[in-house]
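@channel sequence for tomorrow's demo:
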Amino acid sequence: MGIDRIGKHGPPTSSPPKEVRGPATPSAGERPFEVARQAPPPAATPADPIRPPTAALDRLRAGEIDLNGYVDQKIDEATAHLAKLSPLQLEAVRSALRDRIRSDPTFVDLLRTATGQAPELPRDE
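structure tokens (generated this afternoon):
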């Protein structure tokens, strides 16, 4: 007993497709296909150049600030556009970012790559 005629008499056959023929030449009312020329696209804007190390990273490497100062400066840069928030809301965002940078393995790795140092993980008390 076969399922859906598997193994029985091969696949069903269909009639061969009929040939579709169109006119070999365009009729009097039709024009041949033409591609209109378009204006060239506008020139691309130049890409941003590779940025040198930030001032915060330079200050860290020079020993002017420690790793926590570097993280604070980067957080200030990242939240500069949030100046319209209330001071309480802004500090809550900054605090959440600090906690995330110190505890998330991805951010710890990025910080280690950028600075050569890893932040101290918060200790459970």
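heads up for whoever presents: The first helix runs from residue 55 to 62.
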